[in-house]
Amino acid sequence: MALLSEKVRQEVEHILEGLKGGVKLVVFTQEFECPTCEDNRMLMEELAACSSKIQIEVLDFVRDKEKAELYKLDKIPATVVEGKEDYGIRFYGVPGGYEFASLLHAITMVSSGSSTLSPKTKEQLKRLSKPVHIQVFVTHTCPYCPEVVQLAHEMALESPLITSDMVNAAEFPHLNHKYDIFVVPKTIINETIQFAGAVPESEFLKHVLKAEKR
């Protein structure tokens, strides 16, 4: 049974008509011990079928361990959204509900190779000298989460030193305990900076720059 309804599929096809460059979805799954891996793989396959400019590669987290390590993935289901290069955009867990919009945003963004960040933010990100890892914890029913996820992904596109993850909190309870995830969205940067809720681009940038200096 398809995950996308006919109406949603048609809407997605319309959105993806504007893709400029090719996009590759690298999906890591596992045959056993991953309850949501099948749903994630099916969603990505249905999405890829909506546009000739989207390719999909399905890999096994165990058998393709070297590739998983190359992408620095540590859990599944995981999806890497690549354009002409790997921009560090990751989805951990199924990006359903409100987060489906974040997935479409990532695809259209890497296809164009550009973000909507302000020139000032882009300039500041170019000055980064150390790796920055951003994790945004979300749920499918959170209407404020996509704004934060998309902002984090845009920063990853603009800086080769940034990797940004959407993490579906419902699928990784051990991380909820580790980071005290009681509300979403909650953002963790380099394990040192934490903040909850949606924040403006300028404030998000301040957190990134502060985390890099620690």
Describe the structure.
This protein folds into two domains: 6-112, 3-Layer(aba) Sandwich (Glutaredoxin); 119-213, Glutaredoxin, CATH 3.40.30.10. The protein has eight helices and eight strands. It has helices at 6-16, 37-48, 65-70, 99-112, 119-126, 145-158, 173-179, 201-213; strands spanning 23-29, 54-60, 78-82, 86-92, 132-138, 162-168, 186-189, 193-196. Strands 2-1-3-4-6-5-7-8 form an eight-stranded mixed beta sheet. Helix 4 packs parallel to helix 6 (145-158). The longest helix has 14 residues, at 99-112. The N and C termini lie far apart (48 Å).
Short description:
It is built from 8 helices and 8 strands, in the order αβαβαββααβαβαββα.
**Beta-strand percentage range:** 15-25%
Number of helices: 8
Percent in helix: 25-40%
What does the radius of gyration come to?
A: 16 Å
Gap from first CA to last CA: 48 Å
Q: Based on DSSP secondary structure assignment, what is the total number of beta strands?
A: 8
CATH superfamily descriptor of the largest domain? Glutaredoxin
Known CATH architecture of the largest domain: 3-Layer(aba) Sandwich
Give the biggest sheet.
Answer: 8 strands, mixed
Number of domains: 2
The topology string of helices and strands comes to HEHEHEEHHEHEHEEH
Task: Give the spatial strand order of the biggest sheet.
Answer: 2-1-3-4-6-5-7-8
